[in-house]
Specification:
By secondary structure, the chain is an all-alpha fold. The protein contains 13 helices and no strands. Helix content is about 75%, strand content about 0%. α10 packs antiparallel against α13.
């Protein structure tokens, strides 16, 4: 009876989880289906779920006619550059904090996290003034610099927990064999914390990809705008074409989902291995 009751309970749990999954995925599925509907279907029958005709005209119009491809290139360049620099700097900083300055590093890592206390809108004016004085307004370098100021503190704080899980004995054994500090870091330590680095890289990439406020404030040239700002500009047009809006939304959302699907196992493993006990 106990086994039967447990089996029934498991069935209900699975049904409940499937329902939650369906609810969570419905908006994304709705956007994707709406983006491939024929002309006039969205306005003629807004509540219709399945398309009568399938077309990719909205994607062609958004990518080629509205130059959305340039915005995609900008977002990829900015997000990848931000992620690469943030990971290199934060990995070195986190390792130095854990191995060379543990007491001072613990205080510094807490101070770094306090940067997230301030809402982004509060720092919009100071960032704009600083970027203007440096001559980096309306440049990709200026936007990357702003993103790094937020990404690196969080990445350092997150990677400190992962580096703490690496046993000191492994590093000492490598040093006895004649390995230098840099070789120990690259060939011994980094492979052990790679799940945490991958997880941090993905979070950094997604945050840079989806960021809207500073991209809107610092970038005025349409050829340098990111996809988040370009998507918002469609909403501000005189005549809003919902088909174009749906297609552009799919283009913005899909890359983050693809990245997350590819490395979700590494994220889960990294977070469990890097947790501070």
């Amino acid at each position: 009876m106990k086994k039967r009751g447990k089996k029934i309970g498991d069935i209900f749990c699975h049904i409940y989880l499937l329902m939650l999954t369906a609810i969570a995925m419905f908006p994304l599925v709705w956007i994707i289906i709406s983006s491939i509907k024929g002309k006039g279907e969205l306005t003629g029958n807004p509540t219709g779920f399945l398309p009568k005709t399938v077309t990719f005209d909205y994607f062609k119009h958004v990518i080629f006619d509205l130059n959305f491809i340039d915005n995609i290139k900008n977002s990829i360049l900015i997000a990848l550059t931000t992620t690469a620099i943030a990971i290199v700097v934060s990995a070195l900083a986190a390792y130095g904090i854990v191995r060379f300055f543990p007491r001072l590093g613990a205080i510094l890592s807490k101070i770094l996290v306090t940067t997230y206390i301030f809402p982004p809108i509060l720092l919009a004016i100071p960032y704009s003034i600083v970027m203007a004085k440096l001559g980096l307004t309306n440049t990709r370098i200026g936007l990357i610099t702003v993103y790094l100021s937020f990404s690196i503190p969080y990445a350092v704080w997150l990677l400190v927990g992962f580096f703490k899980t690496v046993p000191v004995g492994i590093e000492e054994a490598a040093k006895i064999d004649g390995a230098s500090k840099m070789i120990v870091f690259r060939k011994v330590v980094l492979p052990l914390v790679m799940p945490g680095i991958v997880a941090t890289a993905i979070y950094t990439f997604i945050n840079a990809w989806n960021e809207f406020l500073y991209s809107l404030i610092l970038i005025n040239d349409t050829s340098k705008m990111t996809v988040a700002v370009a998507l918002r500009s469609l909403d501000g047009s005189e005549i809003l074409d919902w088909g174009d809006m749906m297609a552009a939304s799919v283009i913005v959302v899909i890359p983050s989902i693809i990245f997350f699907c590819f490395i979700q196992n590494k994220i889960a493993g990294g977070l469990s291995e890097g947790s501070v006990k």
